[in-house]
Write a structure and sequence with these properties.
The chain has 194 residues and is of the alpha+beta class. The protein has 5 helices and 12 strands. Strand 2 and strand 3 form a beta hairpin. Helix 2 packs across helix 3.
């Protein structure tokens, strides 16, 4: 690892991102690395800098190398993710793939919903922009329900509980762009956790 100052803010955001991708709560990850949820929360919010031992244990728990955990924010002018390199997660009757990898402020997700299926309910910081690529979906935001067809787009405040469902007899594909505020992501974003 090159000798340079490690950006604690980036590391906190990176830990929060990796935890979120796996669908782990603060308490679940804290148990795995022998920290309290409060200590882990302080690391994610960058009010506490983790020790090297903690970083090594976190990297091991996430199943990545230490350099992948602490390497700085991506700075390239562009970022290409090949289809074969996507991180995917199979949900009950759907599949979710991330298209944006390590960028902390924006996520691009490709969701495939089989007929009569739905994402888990999610709520998190920031805004979501959803576009239906094929088929049709029903989006429930808080108590409102909206039916969207191919080509329809919807932007909404993601702190409200939301579910995407496919009540049709055909598979639906949805692209979701999440724009996060600066700092660690807050809330439970189940359908986006890889």
């Amino acid at each position: 690892m090159p000798e340079r100052e490690i950006d604690a803010r980036w590391i906190g955001r990176r830990i929060a991102q990796l935890r979120g991708e796996r669908g782990w709560t603060l308490a679940a990850l804290a148990d795995r690395v022998d920290l309290s949820a409060t200590q882990l929360s302080r690391i994610e919010s960058s009010t506490r800098q983790p020790s090297l031992g903690t970083l090594i244990e976190l990297a091991r728990t996430f199943g990545i190398g230490l350099s992948q955990l602490v390497d700085g924010e991506p700075t390239a002018e562009y970022h290409l993710v090949r289809r074969a390199d996507r991180l995917s997660k199979n949900l009950t009757d759907s599949e979710l793939s991330t298209l944006s990898w390590d960028f902390p402020d924006i996520e691009a997700l490709h969701v495939i919903l089989e007929p009569a299926s739905a994402t888990p309910e999610a709520e998190h910081s920031g805004r979501d922009l959803l576009c239906v690529i094929t088929g049709s979906v029903r989006v429930t935001i808080n108590t409102d329900t909206l039916d969207l067809d191919r080509g329809d787009a919807l932007r909404f405040s993601a702190h409200l509980p939301h579910v995407i469902s496919n009540d049709s007899a055909e598979t639906a594909e949805v692209m979701i762009i999440r724009i996060h505020p600066a700092g660690p992501h807050r809330g439970r974003a189940s359908y986006g956790n890889l």
